[in-house]
Amino acid sequence: MTPDRINTLLVFAALAAVAGVAAYYLARYLKGSITISLPRTAFNGGEQVEGSFQLITRKEVNANNLTAALVATETTRERGYKGRTTTHTREIYRGGQTLEHARVYPAGYQGSYNFKIAAPEGAQPFGQDSALGSALGLLTSFGRRIDWRVEVRLDAEGVDLAASRKISVGRSGFF
Questions:
Q1: Is residue 111 part of a domain?
Q2: Domain contains 2
Q3: Is the pTM here over 0.85, yes or no?
Q4: Mind giving me the DSSP string for the chain?
Q5: For position 149, which CATH number holds?
Q6: pLDDT digits (tens, 9 = 90+) for 139-148
């Protein structure tokens, strides 16, 4: 293959990828939307994360379930061989509630829902439940981050409707 032909194929592949992503978001937009409202975004372990959301459908949606969840993801950065940095992200907590089971939402549906999800009592990593554990955690947690979010998802045929809002979950007091 000539270099011009390879460049043409690469441009075509990039355009196809962009078109695919655009089609996904267009399909999701045309299906409907979810808007989350939280009166506050900082919580201690054991507290209730309370909020509400509005579900709007633009066309008929055959749904399996409607859920609200509290999700924590851990992101670690490690410096490896020759100074290369690698990043790993994994879900470490998911707790929530199913608000509605299988249902057909008609086109133009607008519904408001409330949710309460208990933040886990041990929101801190293992071993940080004392002053010494917290101090050791500060020393060893460089390159490690835990992000919390409230996620609302309408599991539907085809493209799901989903929204999330970032929150913080910690402990009261410094140690």
A1: yes
A2: no
A3: no
A4: --HHHHHHHHHHHHHHHHHHHHHHHHHHHHHEEEEEE-S--EEETT-EEEEEEEEEESS-EEEEEEEEEEEEEEEEEEE-GGG-EEEEEEEEEEEEEEEE-SEEEPTT-EEEEEEEEEPPTT-SPTT-SSHHHHHHHHHH-TTEEEEEEEEEEEEESSSPEEEEEEEEEE-SS--
A5: 2.60.40.640
A6: 545 578 999 9
